[in-house]
Batch of 2 targets.
Target 1
Amino acid sequence: MPYDRAPITEAVVEFRFAATFPQTTVEAAGRRLRDEYFYLDQENIVQFKLEPATQKAEPSGSWLGVKLSSLDRADSVFFRHDTFICSRLAPYTGWDDFFARTVRAWEVWRKSAGHTVLSRIGVRYVNRIDVPVANAALVRLEDYLNVFPKSPEDLGAPLSAYAMQVIRPLDVDDCVLALNTATVAPPLIGFVSLALDLDVFREANLPQRDDDLWDIVTRIRGHKNRIFESCITDRARALFN
Amino acid sequence: MDAIQIQKLRPDAGAIGRTSVSFPSTGTSITSQFIKQKLDDLAAPTPSFSGIRIAERGLDEELYDALAAFKIRTAAVSMHLDRNWRARLFGQLDSLLALSDWEVEDAPPTIDSYSTFLRMLTLLRPQRRPGLGAASHGSLIATWTVGDDRLTIECLPKDIVRWQLSATIDGERERAAAETPLPRLAAVLRPYDPGRWFQNAQHVPAG
């Protein structure tokens, strides 16, 4: 269901590779897509090694891949040794735009890397429900979510924060749901923010052909939508319109 | 009933939008290490929200990184902003942080200051976008000017603002200045009729 103010803070399609690719291949893919994105950044992992003798931390880095971003930094593509990621930050502009951009970036990857055997396909939507609190002292989780932690009433005062992960096979399309829900530090003053992070992924019977790949990605997105609607209440929906 | 108690905290800029995880007392068992790893995973930002430059940076890199960080931080509240309003704000940021116009000795605005600025915008919801400037020590400054009436707000870290204004009220010139926690800003400006600065503009209101 499209919402006026979709609570999606990030949409992600991620493909993990069964084998790693050399830096030259990853860089070539980045160059091929360069004209379609405003920024091209290198991604590095930096680790610090503490030298006991000198008490100094020496940084050492390893190259991870390239990140292409739009001028407003909302659209990104990551080409890495072992992963392809297409991401959209808020404001979400809809599946059609996002899917088309994902397909295009994957075409570019395939031109550079050739046939790519996958080990995992994931479609992840990170949602954040911003609940206005006005002068309230409490926000009842069940008013907004149908998935939340339960704890005995006699433990004491209400929760001040929570973080919970549920992993659950979906019994359809070999998919698994990784659901994270948590309180997050609210970006808006006078609100409580609840994250509902849905990652539907598949690690078995992965497609070998792109047509099949997009078919399963589209189906996974459908499963994700159904799960999202199951996890929220009408009161939450009212906040998005 | 499972409920969340409202916390009146002023979060660090780096914590905003991130999962609130409290790491337990340190344990050494495999189970405690496993739980710590799970909590690390829950609290970790996605690739789009991670990434800082560690090495010593030149001014051009500092401005580049600041602009990227500001746009990514804005994404956290973009569903609450009018899209045209947001696009124009980004145009202002592009101009403000352009290397060619930047004083070499000045520090770029910090993400902590920008975070306060963004929270101020989503709290006050001004129809008119402010003019943007930067103090030499890394604070973002928002300015609204209508005729001779001027409101200047310097955004400090952790939801603190330092403001000053001059306005004509009932034919008399008044000046005021103070440092205020952001949640009280609307209340302390109310006697000066802040609508004179925030409304009556051609700009599209925040959503």
Target 2
Amino acid sequence: METYMLETFYFYLLALVAVVSGYLVVTCKSPINNAVALMMTFVCLANFYVMLQAPFMAAIQIMVYAGAILMLIIFVIMLLNMDSLKGQKVSHSASWAAGLAALVFIQVYFVLNRSEPTGLTGGITNQVVATVGHTQLIAKSLFTDFLLPFEIASILLLVAIVGAVVLAKKNV
Amino acid sequence: MITVHHYLVLGAILFSLGTFGVLTRKNAIVIFMCIELMLNAVNLTFISLSHYLGNMDGQIFVLFIMAVAAAEAAVGLALMIAFFRNRESISVDDFNLLKW
């Protein structure tokens, strides 16, 4: 009982931080503040992945999102001169966008919260994750069932590298 | 006791926050960050359902989403740099080359 209470408290604390920093991502005036708030959200989500018995995904979340993607975004923010955007932070359609976002939330809320996940549960219990190891389970699935998508992802990354180099050349 | 619905509702909140940001902001890089926020909300939903259903497939999907997001970041930011070099602006109001 004690551990459940502590887990619940920790969940709500992290959820509060994640939602507040998500709100800051949307509303902050300066792009660099948005980037820092986004990093906070990524770290909170990594904590949730640990709570969901997925430590490998938490490590990947920190390394790929907070380490690689966000650093790229911050580099670009610092390369570009953002002063040209002063005075036009938000478009005129804020109320329409708020209504649309609220509609999306209500739809997703009802679909997700009022539904019950199927009673079919697979063999990956907490016990299995603890004994076999999460990384090994991921690797086994990735290199057997999902081998073709894995190869395709490597081609996608190669194309993205070539595309980024071509786009960033001088005379584009 | 934390149920799967807690995680799903949190994912819904983050997703709709990202939607709001994409629809209201004008800075292309901020819009890009809001899209990353939406992708992360989906990742959270995938991993929580994967955990509660005892199935590994959702986490593999998250791995692929991350690979696609990394490719998207590289190409998208290169596009923004090329656009800024030509137009001296990063506001989506100036992204009107395909408008007719």
